[in-house]
Amino acid sequence: MIKKTAVVLMLAVLSSLLGGCWSRKEISELAIVLGVGVDLLPNDQIRLSVQIAQPGAFYGGGGARGGGMQTASWAVSAEGKTIDEAARYLAMRVPREIYWGHSMILVIGEKMAREGIGLIGDFFNREKEPRETMWLLVAEGEARDVLECGSILEKTSAQAAAFLTRMKTGFAVELREFAEMLASKGVQPVATRVIVKEQGAVPCAAQEGVATAYRQVEVSGLAIFKEDRLVGWLDDYETRGFLWLKGETFKGIITVPSPGDAYKAVSLRLRQAQTKVVPEYDGERIRFSVKIRTEADMVEQQSFEDLAKPEKIKALESLMAEEIRAMATTALEKVQRGYGVDIFGFGDAFHRKYKEDWRRLKDRWDEEFIRAEVSVTVEAHIREIGMLTRPAFSPEE
Amino acid sequence: MVGLGKAIKRLLRRGVKDGQSDNPIKKFRGTILSSSSVDVPLSSDLETNLQRLKSIFDKCSDVVFREFVFAQNEQVKLALIYIDGMVDKVQVSDQIMRALALEVAMATGGQKITKAHALEFIRERGLCINQISETGKTQDVIHAILSGDTVLLVDGHTTAIINGVRGWEARAITESQAESTVRGPRESFVETLRVNTSLIRRKIKSPALKIETLRLGEVTDTDVAIAYVESIANEKVVAEVKTRLKKIRVDGILESGYIEELIEDNPWSFFPTVNATERPDRVAGMLLEGRVAILVDGTPFVMTVPSLFVEYLQSPEDYYERFLFVSAVRLIRLLSLVLSLVLPGLYIAIVSFHHELLPTALLLSVAAQREGVPYPVLVEMLVMEVLFEVLREAGLRLPRPLGQAISIVGALVIGEAAVRAGLVAAATVIVVALTGIGSFVLSYRVSIAFRLLRFVLILLSAALGLMGLTSGMAVIMIHLCTLRSFGIPYLSPMIPLTTTDLKDVVVRAPWWAMFTRPRLIAGRRQTRLEPGLKPASPEARPKVEG
Amino acid sequence: MPEKGKIDTKQAIMLSICLILPTAMLSVPAVIIRHARQDAWISLILSIFIGLLVARLIVSLSFRFPDKTLFQYSEEILGRVPGKIVGLLYLWWVLHSNAIAIDEFASLPCVALMPDTPFVAFFIIAIVVAGYAVRNGLEVLSRYIELITPIGLGLMVSLFCLLTTKVKFERLLPVFDKGLVSIVKGAAMPSGWMGEIVLFSMFIPYLNKPREACRVAVLSILIIGIFMVSVTVGILLVFGPDVSSSWIFPVFMAIRAISIANFLERVESVVIGIWVFMGFAKIGVLYYAAVLGSAQWLGLKDYRPLVAPVGIVLLGLAFLCPNIIDLLDFLARAFPPYALIVFELGIPLILLGASLIRGRRGESS
Questions:
Q1: Which of B145, B120, B157, B121 has the alpha carbon at shortest distance from B66?
Q2: Judged by CB atoms within 8 Å, which residues 231-250 of C form the interface with A?
């Protein structure tokens, strides 16, 4: 009898569960956000812009339901005191449930970034939907522009920006990495810079000779933060210097003058790089010696001289080391002297070695960092020289 | 839903109570051959015996009574009784009738045989039948007649001679329909018990193969045989099988499925704990592993017990093909087993709850497909799954050529048209098709269990997403852990783990490495092949001295 | 004896693993990291020793009273009334621990997956499923555990292997950064968890080889310890101490960060699956201990009738905790002294001492 009652009870419970369906959200009831942008308006309101995917445009195959490139996304904004408030207003304009789980990029407008990202970061970390693996970008100008422009190859600008970042030609920062840098006293955060520019041309099918330029995203350079506030930018060249100091391997080309002819150039493609930061502290002065070891392949040369000789390679190696040192020093100069923030993680390296002193120094680390001496030594090696032993198109000797 | 459950309970309970009140089972048994004439011994008077038998076989137009006189002595009256259509008529007329009525006299030169010696003479010299037996009991006579034997009654004797001249129109041994293989014997069981036992005996030529027979079914009086290899089979299991079979009191057994439901360990479970096959090689393999086979007259399906979960991954062909290939195929079977159970539920859980679990590109693609689909994914999925089952059932019931047409129409027209019309998403069709095909990879019997459980998981997933799906699966797992087949844990040798037996679960070890029989199934004799059989080239073999 | 089934050594090890690990895996690392930062693994190693101590204690008690569980021999040692009181205390503790486990079990899906679903739905699911296993007896429960534990742990390990691309070993440095005090503080909570091995005494009488009880307890503590250490180190290597201490479920977050070749990503559903399956196992084991304990405390012949009432009590207790903040706070602050000092070390020590004294008196008389 008890058994039967129990079975009936369980059936009752199960049926009530079946009737529930509390958290159910049909996929067709969702507005899938691909990119989020946050701007600070002059009246201190936060403007939240989202790029929402228009699913019909993503229908593969027949394409009967597919739309053109122009309708693949919809950018819409709302303002509010906090992100959540803005999101609430946004919900009044978007006829579907806004779904953050697939947002690939978080773009912060320049003004917002200068005011402090800390104001908004909480939303994206505390909420379960936005993933902490989305790329953090700082827009030169307004974040909304990034979301409102299009892309020729990809369906949306958010995807374009995310794929550009993912290729790691520069320095890519996930939201979680930014949070980690922000939390640590030994390193100041950086984020990738994104710019909207007209680039390339799309030939007009109807009229020959007429091409329209499209405003598209470009991901290059870095935004430098002090705590959560944007303090300045690094351009492409400096970013690579930063990468050398930080010890991040990247895909890149280094161009150095030809050993025999300073007006012609040789390009080297990086294979790998290692960076070692060794702090030294005598109780007063902090010194960092940065040792960079790298390997590269020669990929292009402009001059006709024969570089496939040991001594030429040696010369090329030292030129390359010189170039890398110059890059690193430029970035260091600008950051250390210009902005005075330790974005390289030297503080962390110091912490690892002198944990007792660190406790004392960590709260005024940036000042210490400005005063620190940094010496950069580079050891460069060339491994492959491509498929030619002599330059192409060179005249017979 | 609660009300429904209660109603079912009440119904069930009432059924039981009614049964107890006037006990139809016992009463029923007495009605079959109620007359006390059955239990009496044969009389010495032929007329009396014939009278009795005729009254028993009253209105049985297929029973033939043939009376004639013995060639050696006109006084001795003889009678042949048999069922038309169940005996070999040529033998009856040539070897019995002709011999007794004519030829005996020629051979012996007309020597007179007294009435008292007639029976002995007929038995010794008169009949040209190789399989005869004698009985003095009426019920044995009746049973012999019903089984297709021909009974010879001799006037003045209380003993009847039973001539084994059975011969009826039977289906020839053909290729197996339900379990076909690429490599391996083609023959399959037929409906005749004796043919089936001979098929097994031909594979296991050992006196250790025991085939015990008993008769079940109060009306059908069906022959049931228990086959096992003595000293390999676990005696406890053999004894248990016998006890369970002997308990059966039922009017008729038309197929082994009747017995299966009466001897299962867990009658309420979705999962079969008794295996059935129509392949003699498979049965022989099972017997050699220590299992017990139950053969039932009238069906080509032979049951084997204990039957474990692992058997769903195994196919007879696995032991004939090369082991590496077989192991890969087993992995695919395991995959399709999991897919056919979980995939629809997972799809629903992800599409209607956990969108973050799909990669962005896939999500957008699914979203694009679902754009404009009028119903929630649960309804869509249920409709498609039910439709699939309808198509499957239709394909099964229709004549074979038509069945294929049905599946083509179903797959192409309904699937394609529904997607075109925007009624269902293409992804849903893909999922349903995948699960359907996945379930066909497994043996038909177990795929039924998974097919039903799939619907349960679909509902749970629709209610609670991944939580529902995983909870449902946990309950299924716990349920599988509770199951036993004739005392052997259903999930063995995985749970409880028997490491040596894992050689024949997800992968199949090569034959030269399968040293032992399944530990829990086989009885005392565990070793199945001699160690050191791994083939090697002559150079690599250790040199024999001298 | 209310239970007739027997479990073998392998099953017993997995049973003890499931007694502790499933819920500890997800939330405990954050608490340790909050105290000991990148030295969390040292704290964990400390807690392994505490766990081993408790295991030794409980096994030596069980060796003095073979065929008897905690509830039975406490009565034998202390006498009827005090023994019953101790039994009652343990009964409360088992029920409370189980309620906490149920709360934790529900919190991951609630926080991370389905925020709109009320907690009670998950409570009911957990209790119903675990209750189904418990009703079917110790053998079925341990078979279920034997089925899912290797799969669950194996999957977890392979998921962590996928994280190797994001690992930076510098995140573990410097060692001993915060000093010994914070390391010990960090060890308090995991020690409380490790000490739950005390409940293994409920299962020792049902081992088919009772002599191996010590081996089982030690091995399971070591496996749990090694697993926890590797999980914690894994989290630290991926996120560093700052970020991982601010999350409620750092393991879940770590798995969320997996992204390999741009297609092997968003695999946290696997973690949810592991969490649910292993969670049922843990709740089932504690549930079983509670049901068996109360049957023995009441002197019943069969524990099955108690499954439903105990389930209802558990449901009520699970409601005691209003939200996840309180739960985490309780686990981080109150739980270690409450569980460790009273139930995992205190009472067993008293029992052992009393039985030693009584034993000696028994010898002398």
A1: B145
A2: 239-240, 242-243, 246
- Taking one residue from A and the other from B, the number of pairs with CB-CB distance under 8 angstroms is 95
> Which residues, listed in sequence order, are joined to residue B312 by a DSSP beta bridge?
none
Structure-block tokens of residue B390 = 């309808």
Q: What is the pLDDT of residues C238-279, one digit of tens each?
A: 888 888 887 888 888 888 888 887 778 888 888 888 999 999
B388, two tokens: 């699939």
Respond yes or no on whether the N-terminal peptide bond of residue B306 is cis (omega within 30° of 0): yes
The CA-based angle B307-B309-B311, given to 5 degrees, is: 65
pLDDT digits (tens, 9 = 90+) for C133-146: 999 989 999 999 99
Q: Encoding tokens for residue B157?
A: 């004797």
Chain length of chain A: 397
Provide ipTM, 2 decimals. Answer: 0.91
Indicate the SS3 state at residue B103.
helix
pLDDT digits 0-9 by tens, B486-496:
988 999 888 88
The upper half-sphere exposure of residue B80, i.e. CA atoms within 13 Å in the direction of its Cβ, equals 27
Cβ of residue C160 closer than 8 Å to a chain B Cβ: no
Q: Domains in chain C and their CATH numbers?
A: 9-364 (1.20.1740.10)
CATH code given to domain A236-397: 3.30.300.210
State pLDDT tens for residues A201-260: 777 767 777 777 778 888 888 999 988 889 989 888 888 888 888 877 677 788 888 887
Domain boundaries, chain A: 28-58+68-234, 236-397
Going by pLDDT thresholds of 50, 70 and 90, the confidence category of residue B528 is confident
Q: In this structure, what token pair is assigned to residue A272? A: 């790998």
Give the Cα separation of B413 and B52 in Å (integer).
Answer: 66
Q: Residue A224: helix, strand or coil by DSSP?
A: strand
**Cβ neighbours for B281, distance < 8 A, ≥ 6 positions apart:** B184, B185, B203, B316
DSSP H helices in A38-117: 83-93, 110-115
Please tell me if residue C308 touches chain A, with a CB cutoff of 8 Å.
yes
Q: What is the pLDDT of residues A356-366, one digit of tens each?
A: 888 888 888 88
Write the DSSP symbol of residue C301: S
Please provide residue B217's backbone torsions phi and psi, each rounded to the nearest 5 degrees: 100, 115
Classify residue A29 by its DSSP letter. Answer: G
With contact defined as beta carbons under 8 Å apart, do C256 and A133 qualify? yes
Distance from CA of B489 to the nearest CA of C (A): 10
Q: For residue C319, what are its two tokens?
A: 């409601």
Distance from CA of C163 to the nearest CA of A (A): 13
pTM: 0.87
Residue among B24, B19, B21, B18 nearest B218 (CA): B24
CA distance C260 to B304: 48
Contact yes or no for A102 and B463 at CB 8 A: no
Q: H-helix or E-strand containing B276?
A: strand B275-277
Q: Specify the DSSP class assigned to residue A232.
A: E
